[in-house]
Amino acid sequence: MKLIELLKQEEAVLPETIRMLFPKLTEEDFNKVEALNTLLHSPRPYENLYIFENVVLALNGEIPDFSVMQGCTPEQIFFAFHIIERLGFTPYFDWEVKQWVKYSLNQEGVFFYPKLADTGEGLVFDNVKKKAEEGPFPLGETFEDIQASKWLAIDLYINKMIAKEVWNSLNQG
């Protein structure tokens, strides 16, 4: 049985089962699998900012420390939302999780938010993305241009992470 088929079952898969069926998973990969398992089978990451932060870290290949808040970069947050958007359903994010996303991004000078966590404040994500894709280039030093350049860095990170996952899956089979 393939891992993705196992995760898409009706019930959550126990960590022991995953370790038994896939003993060669690295600790980072096991944490990614557990994060996906949690996203697919529990409302908790969408309701609790502490759990959501750990899921974001795990999806990015980090090993979360559940005893402290570690913080996440804008790139890590947007990559996690990239994955969540591809799970096949649209979860409802609680206010505290949306505020954590907003605060985390604002601390790094990012004032646009993933669509699923948009609070209705800040810049509209589609407008920032359009400016980043269409220019005019070179981007200047206006607020909108700076935000567009930040999106370009985030998008580059997302594409690197996707390429890394594809490369790893090709080398495992």
> What general outline do the C-alpha atoms trace?
globular
Distance between the termini: 14 Å
Rg result: 17 Å
Mean pLDDT across all residues, rounded? 90
For the secondary structure, the number of strands is: 0
Structural class based on helices, strands and sheet pairing: mainly alpha
Q: Oligomeric form of this entry?
A: single chain
Query: Any idea how many domains?
Result: 1
Q: Helix and strand succession?
A: HHHHHHHHH
Q: Can you tell me the residue ranges where pLDDT is under 50 for at least 5 consecutive residues?
A: none
Describe the structure.
The chain has 173 residues and is mostly helical. It has one domain (3-172). Helices cover 62% and strands 0% of the residues. It is built from nine helices and no strands. The protein has helices spanning 3-7, 15-21, 27-41, 44-47, 49-59, 74-85, 95-107, 125-134, 143-172. It starts with a helix and ends with a helix.
Characteristic terms for this protein:
173 residues, globular, mainly alpha
Set out the fold topology.
Layout: H1 3-7, H2 15-21, H3 27-41, H4 44-47, H5 49-59, H6 74-85, H7 95-107, H8 125-134, H9 143-172
